[in-house]
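Entry for nicotinamide-adenine-dinucleotide complex. Fields follow.
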Amino acid sequence: MNLLITGGMGFVGSNVARHFIDAGHHATLFDIRPRKLDYLDEVQKSWNYLQGTVTDLEALERAITTEKPAAIVHAVGGELGSAYRHFDVHVSGTACILEAARRHDLYTVALSSGAIYGQLEGNEPVTESTPFGPVYPPRDNDAASAAPYSIAKRLAEQWIELYRNFYGLKVACPRLVWVYGPGSEDYQLQGGISLMLRKAIAGESLQLPYGGDTFCNFVYVKDVCDAIFKAVASGKSLTFNASYDRGYFMKEAAAAVKRNIPSAKIDFGPGIWPSKGVPIPRHGISMPTNRPTDNSLAKKEIGYRPVYDIDRGVGEYADWMKKHWDICSPDVVPFHF
Ligand SMILES: NC(=O)c1ccc[n+]([C@@H]2O[C@H](COP(=O)([O-])OP(=O)(O)OC[C@H]3O[C@@H](n4cnc5c(N)ncnc54)[C@H](O)[C@@H]3O)[C@@H](O)[C@H]2O)c1
């Protein structure tokens, strides 16, 4: 079958393309800009690129008419900056995708985010029915996009629910958490595991007197691909957390990087990342940092089976990054932190 992937040149979209291609399918990557990635180059006969914006309903309809996809994976995103751009891409873009899918009766997987949960008290696992908390306020030394992003994703999910209920459209809505792995965009290389690995490979230190007890729901990109693939295979219309079986404290992620690259000088002191006044090593997206996301619904309903614990994910990503240092090194993507 052919799969239409909007945002198909991005981090998650391009990995999803490769995952479906490896399973014998074809992918049409619809994106505002092309990108060169080794894992797409290796299989270039199995995909094609269409330039366009998801906010152009006519362009989407043309793509569907010519490419005849059996399903859509909607994976647009980016470092969008202003609140207006978040609305445009995540809300208007999703509205266009849903309308195009409805007109052509296409099963759709629309990627959502754990950022919709907002700030939550306590530490018990977050399920799909956990009520949302307040969104994160803008923070010093962090991209100011957290609140617009969370709100745009909430609005997009509401619009998805409307299309399910009014039109019977089948839409899967995986709530991804902090995804890491090959193909990360430049802005994503500035935070989390990507940043730790880049610092370690470059021989630079990342040492902070705080933050080791910050909790992060890291998930390797190939586990996310498994969730999306199984959603398409199931044809089910549901919203689910797409996370690993557990989250990790920042100090555990640092330890995994050090196990992989013993010369790494990555150390975080105790406590969580303060919300004000000091730099924090992330790229601006706010997730619930105190609670793990429960993935049992996805396991039960679509047979999701994440297999990348932090050592396996960090190891595979480190190997890829070393091989592709020409696009990941600080000479090309300077450290902000
Ligand atoms: N990466 C994560 O950690 C993470 C976590 C939670 C949710 N998500 C969600 O997953 C989806 C994909 O995220 P990602 O990490 O791959 O993002 P990304 O920034 O790597 O890729 C997004 C892609 O969308 C494209 N794009 C942006 N605006 C577009 C438009 N108007 N029309 C067509 N293409 C457009 C970009 O060119 C880019 O190739 C997003 O919806 C994001 O909110 C990602």
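NOTE: Residues 19 and 258 are 29 Å apart (CA to CA).
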